[in-house]
Each structure stands twice: as C-alpha cells, then as structure tokens.
Design a protein that fits this description.
The chain contains eleven helices and ten strands. It is an alpha+beta fold. It folds into three domains: 110 residues, Orthogonal Bundle (Butyryl-Coa Dehydrogenase, subunit A, domain 1); 84 residues, Butyryl-CoA Dehydrogenase, subunit A, domain 2, CATH 2.40.110.10; 143 residues, Butyryl-CoA Dehydrogenase, subunit A, domain 3 (Up-down Bundle). Helix 5 packs antiparallel against helix 7.
Length: 362
C-alpha cells in the first residue's frame, strides 16, 4: 500500500478545498444559524455540479466510481470548513447502504438521483442511546411502524433508509404516515429529527446482515471528517497565537502554548494515518476493516476533541464568543464524538476485532 495520496487524489483535495474555502466563509455559517436554516442549499447544488455527490457511486448509476479514499478526501475537506450540507447522511450512509444492500431496481431508481442531488436521503437507525438498534421499527405488508431518533438531516431529506431488525427499508418521507419533529441540537449546522412512522409505505431491501459493514465504512468517513476539522483547529490556533501579543511578546513564544500546539499536531497525524489505512482497508482488505475502522474512529475522536478544546483555550475568552470561529468546531466535535456510537462502543469493537480477542469485549 502507499503511504500518501495519489496525484489524482491530491488534485481532488485541491479542487474541493478551493470550492469550499470560497463558498463557506465563517460569516456564512453564522448567517445560516441566525436564519435557522436547515442547510446550505446553494453549496449543495455546487457540490452536485462538480460531481462530488457521485464520488463513490458507480458510473453505471450516474456517479464517478471513485474509491473510499477518494470519498475520504472530499469528506476531510467538508470537515475542514464545517460545511452545512447533508453529505454524510445522503452519500456516506444512505447511498452506500443502497449500493450494498439494495436490489438492482432500487439502485437504478435512487442512486442516479442521489448522485445528481435531485434526492437527499437520511439514514434512520438510532432509537436513543447506542449506534444501531433496529428493534423500534417493524415492517409488515409493506407498511412501516415505529420511531427513529435522532436522525441527522431528516428535515431536508426526501428519502430515508430505515433499519428494521437486521435489515433495511426504503421510505419516501413526503407521504402520509410520516411525521418529522425537529430536536434541539448542540450543533446548529447539522439538525436532527425524530421520525414517527405510522403505517407508512416502505420497500424492504434484500441485503441483510450488512449493518456492521455499513457502520465500519461510515466510521472511516467520519474519521476523515474529524481529521479535516482537527487540522482547521490547529491552523486557526496557530494563526491566532502568532498574531496575539501578551506582555510584549508573541503568544506563540510561550512554552505552554508550544506544547499545546505540538500535542494537537501529533494527535492529528496519528488520526490521519489511521484514517488513510482504514480507507485503504475498506477497498483492498475487508478482513482488516473492522479493526482499522475502530482505530480510525477512536484516534479521530481523540484528535478532534483535543484540537477543538485547545483551540478554545489558546484563544482565551474571545474564543467562547459567537463572533469568534472556535465554537463551530467545538459543536461539531461534540456531535461527532457520539455519532455512530461513543468511545466505549468503538473500543469494544476494536478489542473484538483483534486476533485472539474475539468475544472478550463486553
């Protein structure tokens, strides 16, 4: 395996970074929050026009047919700017689930629409604490009953991929029998909802028993998002301490500040290395994926938590204000820390995936 991105992947990263840096300034994020907006719709349309929404969707279904590392490159850049778009829900989770578990007819119908941005999908699995449950919803005779919460981006989604037991079902959200209720969310740029299904029409997906695989693949992409955000926190903190003066000296000259920034940099590099390996494993070594995804998830959570907190600290009191930009990352870090399951869950999964340790984790 290579230990760096290919030239094509570096070009992809540059394209994504250029677009996002221009279209998602921090002032725009504040405007979205003040307006109570669900998402950045103009940015979503541009991502569709650039082909980013179809990155990991096969060419036969209107996508670009790229791999998991390519998708990770895009996800990393989205994390860097805290983009307010349903990319993770619609492309990382829902499109991947349809591609792996859907019938050919379901793929033909939905994947081209997801790749073009015509349809937005959400992934409804959670029923409270825990990453995946599935017992709170039942499908009988093509009718779905039950409740899922919290569900990210359900307010702008047209379609939901719903976990039912060890399987999945497709549900149109613009029909009778579906009620969406917005929940309070610490991260105001990624709204979450409760969805109640009361006899809503649903279509079962033939693939079953794929939820652990889908979760591992999603964890890899969540790690890439956290890595991008961690790098942004480090860059923001470094720029501030170079500019800020204290007692006639640059804040960057103090040893304690240097230690904070160097610890952030080391944690980021570890998380990035784990994310790269997990992205490779998702494509080339399925047997390594469970351990690789768990390690990537854990190291990314740690790196992002450290980066978001220390970025606040080096900014001092101003870092806690709405006018400063630190809080965007702190809010996103708190969300990503529990999205897809918390540290304990992924630590157990890592232990179970290690040779000779299967079944030992609680």
């Amino acid at each position: 395996m290579d230990f760096d991105l290919s030239d094509e992947q570096k070009m992809l990263a540059e394209q994504a970074r250029g677009l996002l840096a221009e279209r998602t300034p921090y002032d725009n994020l504040r405007k979205l929050i003040d307006a109570g907006a669900e998402w950045d719709e103009p940015l979503w349309r541009e991502l569709a026009e650039m082909g980013f929404l179809g990155a990991n969707i096969p060419e036969a279904f209107g996508g670009l047919g790229m791999g998991e590392l390519d998708l990770g490159v895009i996800q990393q850049e989205l994390g860097r700017v805290n983009a307010a778009v349903p990319f993770f829900s619609s492309i990382v989770l829902a499109a991947d689930a349809i591609r792996l578990a859907g019938s050919e007819a379901q793929k033909d119908e939905w994947l081209p629409k997801l790749a073009s941005g015509e349809v937005i999908a959400c992934f409804a699995s959670a029923e409270g604490p825990g990453p995946l449950l599935g017992q709170g919803a039942s499908l009988d005779g093509g009718k779905l009953t039950g409740t899922k919460q919290p569900v990210a981006d359900a307010g702008v989604a047209n379609l939901a991929v719903v976990q039912v037991g060890d399987g999945l079902a497709l549900v149109r959200l613009d029909q009778a029998g579906v009620t969406r209720t917005r929940l309070d969310s610490f991260d105001q740029l990624r709204p979450h909802y409760r969805i109640d299904f009361d006899g809503a029409g649903a279509e079962a997906m033939p693939g079953r028993g794929l939820l652990p695989l889908l979760l591992d693949r999603a964890a890899v992409q969540a790690a890439f998002e956290a890595v991008g955000a961690s790098e942004a926190c480090l860059e923001m903190g470094l720029a501030y301490v170079k500019e800020r003066q204290m007692f006639g000296r640059s804040l960057s000259s103090y040893q304690a500040i240097k230690h904070k920034l160097s610890d952030m940099a080391v944690a980021n590099e570890v998380a990035k290395s784990n994310a790269y390996f997990a992205g490779w494993a998702a494509e080339a070594s399925p047997d390594d994926l469970p351990a690789a995804a768990s390690a990537a998830r854990l190291s990314a959570i740690r790196a992002f938590e450290m980066a978001a907190r220390e970025n606040l600290q080096v900014h001092g009191g101003i870092g806690y204000t709405f006018e400063a930009n630190c809080h965007f990352y702190y809010r996103r870090e708190r969300l990503l820390a529990v999205n897809l399951g918390n540290r304990g869950y992924w630590a157990d999964r890592l232990l179970d995936a290690l040779p000779g340790a299967q079944g030992k984790a609680a």
